[in-house]
Design a protein that fits this description.
Elements (H helix, E strand, L loop, with lengths): L1 H23 L5 H12 L10 H15 L3 H19 L6 E3 L1 H4 L8 E7 L2 H10 L5 E9 L2 E12 L2 E9 L7 E2 L9 E2 L1 H8 L3
Parallel strand pairs: 2-5
Antiparallel strand pairs: 1-2, 1-7, 3-4, 3-6, 4-5
Helix pairs in contact: 1-2, 1-3, 4-7
Length: 200
Protein backbone atom coordinates (compact mmCIF):
# COMPACT_ATOMS: atom_id res chain seq x y z
CA UNK A 1 0.00 0.00 0.00
CA UNK A 2 2.75 2.46 0.96
CA UNK A 3 4.67 1.60 -2.24
CA UNK A 4 1.58 2.50 -4.30
CA UNK A 5 1.19 5.72 -2.34
CA UNK A 6 4.86 6.56 -2.94
CA UNK A 7 4.40 5.94 -6.67
CA UNK A 8 1.33 8.18 -6.74
CA UNK A 9 3.23 10.88 -4.82
CA UNK A 10 6.09 10.62 -7.33
CA UNK A 11 3.69 10.86 -10.29
CA UNK A 12 2.00 13.91 -8.76
CA UNK A 13 5.34 15.56 -8.01
CA UNK A 14 6.61 14.94 -11.54
CA UNK A 15 3.31 16.21 -13.01
CA UNK A 16 3.63 19.49 -11.08
CA UNK A 17 7.33 19.87 -11.95
CA UNK A 18 6.53 19.24 -15.63
CA UNK A 19 3.66 21.73 -15.46
CA UNK A 20 5.99 24.38 -14.02
CA UNK A 21 8.52 23.73 -16.79
CA UNK A 22 5.79 24.15 -19.40
CA UNK A 23 4.34 27.28 -17.78
CA UNK A 24 7.59 29.05 -16.88
CA UNK A 25 10.25 27.74 -19.29
CA UNK A 26 8.14 27.46 -22.41
CA UNK A 27 8.52 23.71 -22.96
CA UNK A 28 5.65 22.73 -25.26
CA UNK A 29 6.26 18.99 -25.60
CA UNK A 30 4.78 16.83 -22.83
CA UNK A 31 7.35 14.05 -23.25
CA UNK A 32 10.27 16.49 -22.92
CA UNK A 33 8.71 18.12 -19.85
CA UNK A 34 8.13 14.70 -18.24
CA UNK A 35 11.69 13.53 -18.78
CA UNK A 36 13.20 16.78 -17.50
CA UNK A 37 10.88 16.78 -14.47
CA UNK A 38 11.74 13.13 -13.68
CA UNK A 39 15.46 14.00 -13.77
CA UNK A 40 14.86 16.98 -11.45
CA UNK A 41 12.88 14.75 -9.09
CA UNK A 42 15.59 12.05 -9.16
CA UNK A 43 13.12 9.40 -10.39
CA UNK A 44 14.90 6.84 -12.58
CA UNK A 45 11.85 4.63 -13.23
CA UNK A 46 10.26 6.16 -16.31
CA UNK A 47 7.33 3.72 -16.04
CA UNK A 48 6.00 5.94 -13.22
CA UNK A 49 5.70 9.05 -15.35
CA UNK A 50 2.36 10.88 -15.27
CA UNK A 51 0.05 10.95 -18.28
CA UNK A 52 -0.34 14.03 -20.46
CA UNK A 53 -3.79 14.51 -18.92
CA UNK A 54 -2.29 14.57 -15.40
CA UNK A 55 0.27 17.18 -16.50
CA UNK A 56 -2.45 19.21 -18.21
CA UNK A 57 -4.47 19.27 -14.97
CA UNK A 58 -1.36 20.32 -13.00
CA UNK A 59 -0.62 23.00 -15.60
CA UNK A 60 -4.11 24.49 -15.25
CA UNK A 61 -3.67 24.53 -11.46
CA UNK A 62 -0.25 26.21 -11.77
CA UNK A 63 -1.58 28.86 -14.14
CA UNK A 64 -4.60 29.56 -11.92
CA UNK A 65 -2.38 29.94 -8.83
CA UNK A 66 0.66 31.77 -10.21
CA UNK A 67 -0.44 33.37 -13.48
CA UNK A 68 -4.06 34.26 -12.77
CA UNK A 69 -3.79 37.78 -14.20
CA UNK A 70 -1.42 37.41 -17.13
CA UNK A 71 -2.40 33.94 -18.38
CA UNK A 72 -5.93 34.71 -19.69
CA UNK A 73 -4.61 37.84 -21.43
CA UNK A 74 -1.78 35.87 -23.06
CA UNK A 75 -4.14 33.11 -24.27
CA UNK A 76 -6.51 35.72 -25.73
CA UNK A 77 -3.64 37.50 -27.51
CA UNK A 78 -2.41 34.20 -28.99
CA UNK A 79 -5.92 33.23 -30.09
CA UNK A 80 -6.34 36.64 -31.76
CA UNK A 81 -3.07 36.12 -33.64
CA UNK A 82 -4.20 32.59 -34.57
CA UNK A 83 -7.52 33.90 -35.91
CA UNK A 84 -5.70 36.52 -38.03
CA UNK A 85 -3.39 33.87 -39.48
CA UNK A 86 -6.31 31.50 -40.13
CA UNK A 87 -8.22 34.25 -41.93
CA UNK A 88 -5.18 34.95 -44.14
CA UNK A 89 -4.71 31.21 -44.82
CA UNK A 90 -8.43 30.48 -45.36
CA UNK A 91 -7.85 28.85 -48.77
CA UNK A 92 -5.92 26.04 -47.01
CA UNK A 93 -8.76 25.06 -44.64
CA UNK A 94 -6.85 25.93 -41.43
CA UNK A 95 -7.51 24.44 -37.99
CA UNK A 96 -6.06 25.61 -34.68
CA UNK A 97 -4.68 22.93 -32.40
CA UNK A 98 -2.32 22.61 -29.43
CA UNK A 99 -2.00 24.64 -26.25
CA UNK A 100 -3.45 27.88 -27.66
CA UNK A 101 -6.71 26.07 -28.45
CA UNK A 102 -6.66 24.16 -25.15
CA UNK A 103 -6.15 27.40 -23.23
CA UNK A 104 -3.06 26.24 -21.32
CA UNK A 105 -0.44 27.96 -23.48
CA UNK A 106 2.76 28.75 -21.58
CA UNK A 107 4.81 31.97 -21.71
CA UNK A 108 6.62 31.10 -24.93
CA UNK A 109 3.91 29.04 -26.64
CA UNK A 110 3.78 28.58 -30.39
CA UNK A 111 0.58 28.84 -32.39
CA UNK A 112 -0.03 25.48 -34.08
CA UNK A 113 -2.12 25.42 -37.24
CA UNK A 114 -3.02 22.44 -39.40
CA UNK A 115 -3.49 23.25 -43.10
CA UNK A 116 -5.15 20.96 -45.64
CA UNK A 117 -3.80 21.79 -49.08
CA UNK A 118 -3.52 20.27 -52.54
CA UNK A 119 0.26 20.37 -52.08
CA UNK A 120 2.87 21.84 -49.69
CA UNK A 121 4.19 23.80 -52.67
CA UNK A 122 0.92 25.76 -52.81
CA UNK A 123 1.46 26.90 -49.22
CA UNK A 124 5.09 27.74 -49.87
CA UNK A 125 4.20 29.81 -52.96
CA UNK A 126 1.53 31.62 -50.94
CA UNK A 127 4.20 32.64 -48.39
CA UNK A 128 6.75 33.60 -51.07
CA UNK A 129 4.19 35.68 -53.01
CA UNK A 130 3.47 37.68 -49.86
CA UNK A 131 7.15 38.05 -48.96
CA UNK A 132 6.62 36.19 -45.64
CA UNK A 133 9.82 34.79 -44.14
CA UNK A 134 9.63 31.16 -43.02
CA UNK A 135 11.70 28.20 -41.88
CA UNK A 136 11.03 24.68 -43.06
CA UNK A 137 10.97 21.46 -41.09
CA UNK A 138 9.10 18.19 -40.73
CA UNK A 139 6.94 16.43 -38.17
CA UNK A 140 5.73 12.85 -37.91
CA UNK A 141 2.05 12.41 -37.08
CA UNK A 142 -0.52 9.66 -37.51
CA UNK A 143 -3.53 10.16 -39.74
CA UNK A 144 -5.80 7.25 -38.91
CA UNK A 145 -3.33 4.42 -38.35
CA UNK A 146 -0.79 5.57 -40.93
CA UNK A 147 2.31 7.54 -40.01
CA UNK A 148 2.90 10.58 -42.21
CA UNK A 149 6.00 12.76 -42.43
CA UNK A 150 4.54 16.23 -42.93
CA UNK A 151 6.16 19.52 -43.95
CA UNK A 152 6.14 22.36 -41.44
CA UNK A 153 6.52 26.06 -42.24
CA UNK A 154 7.38 28.20 -39.21
CA UNK A 155 6.67 31.93 -39.33
CA UNK A 156 7.43 34.69 -36.86
CA UNK A 157 4.53 36.93 -35.88
CA UNK A 158 6.11 39.71 -33.85
CA UNK A 159 7.99 37.31 -31.57
CA UNK A 160 5.39 34.51 -31.61
CA UNK A 161 6.15 31.45 -33.72
CA UNK A 162 3.33 30.18 -35.93
CA UNK A 163 3.78 26.59 -37.06
CA UNK A 164 1.93 25.52 -40.20
CA UNK A 165 1.73 21.72 -40.55
CA UNK A 166 0.61 20.88 -44.09
CA UNK A 167 -1.60 17.84 -44.62
CA UNK A 168 -3.04 16.50 -47.84
CA UNK A 169 -6.46 18.01 -48.53
CA UNK A 170 -8.13 14.57 -48.18
CA UNK A 171 -6.65 14.05 -44.69
CA UNK A 172 -9.15 16.52 -43.24
CA UNK A 173 -11.57 13.62 -42.70
CA UNK A 174 -8.97 11.59 -40.77
CA UNK A 175 -8.17 11.55 -37.07
CA UNK A 176 -4.75 13.03 -36.27
CA UNK A 177 -2.68 11.62 -33.40
CA UNK A 178 0.91 11.94 -32.23
CA UNK A 179 1.11 8.16 -31.60
CA UNK A 180 -0.84 5.26 -33.18
CA UNK A 181 -3.02 4.71 -30.10
CA UNK A 182 -2.83 8.20 -28.63
CA UNK A 183 -5.64 10.63 -27.98
CA UNK A 184 -6.95 12.38 -31.13
CA UNK A 185 -5.65 15.93 -31.44
CA UNK A 186 -8.33 18.51 -30.76
CA UNK A 187 -8.71 21.09 -33.50
CA UNK A 188 -10.95 24.03 -34.26
CA UNK A 189 -11.99 25.94 -37.38
CA UNK A 190 -11.79 29.72 -37.55
CA UNK A 191 -15.46 30.09 -36.58
CA UNK A 192 -14.84 28.13 -33.35
CA UNK A 193 -11.77 30.25 -32.53
CA UNK A 194 -13.80 33.42 -33.12
CA UNK A 195 -16.46 32.02 -30.76
CA UNK A 196 -13.77 31.58 -28.07
CA UNK A 197 -12.84 35.24 -28.55
CA UNK A 198 -16.41 36.51 -28.38
CA UNK A 199 -17.27 38.47 -25.20
CA UNK A 200 -18.65 36.01 -22.68
Amino acid sequence: MSRDRNRNDERTRIAHLAARLMAEDGIEDYATAKRKAARQAGVPDTRQLPTNEEIEAALRTHQALYQADEHPQRVRMLREKAAEAMHALARFNPYLTGSVLAGNAGKYADINLQLYAESPKAVELFLIDRDIDYRTGQIRLYVGQEQHTLPVFTLDDDGTEVQLVVFDADDVRGTVRTTPDGKPMERARLSAVQALLAPG
